[in-house]
Design goal:
7 strands, two-stranded antiparallel sheet, alpha/beta, globular, 5-stranded parallel beta sheet, Rossmann fold, 137 residues
Length: 137
């Protein structure tokens, strides 16, 4: 089966009903796309949780090294890593109670979908969360 993103309505409802986004690969460098997108989502009212073992803090939030270290609920796992890392991240995401696994624009891996397709999470790939938020809110 070929991967297909959820409907616009499902994505809209996810964004409307979510508060906390764990961002895997969030950079502390303001010129990086992960920083800019996450900053925009933070300004839109979402709590951003940086997940990156190489940084201590991003956007005023203490970073954690892995999803397992995130305290409290996660609504969306937003991934800013290259496509080849998605299956490994999907395996980690299976152990986290989150509403969605979201890989940014240009990031897609059928194997990650295969890992998560029987999970209760929405799987969204190759779509920018900031763009989706602007279009579907």
């Amino acid at each position: 089966m070929t991967f297909q993103n959820p409907s616009k309505q499902e994505i809209k409802e996810l964004l409307q009903n979510s508060k906390r986004i764990a961002v895997i690969g969030l950079s502390d460098k303001p010129h990086r796309t992960s920083y800019q997108v996450s900053e925009a989502m933070q300004q839109a009212g979402y709590e951003i949780i940086p997940v990156n073992p190489a940084v201590e803090e991003v956007l005023g939030q203490k970073a954690v090294a892995s999803l397992a270290e995130v305290e409290g609920p996660i609504d969306i796992i937003n991934v800013f890593r290259r496509s080849e890392y998605l299956p490994e991240i999907a395996e980690e995401a299976k152990n986290v109670n989150a509403k969605a696994f979201w890989a940014q624009q240009g990031v897609i891996h059928e194997g990650a979908y295969d890992i998560l397709k029987d999970d209760s999470k929405l799987v969204i790939m190759d779509l920018c969360i900031k763009v989706a938020h602007a279009l579907y809110r």
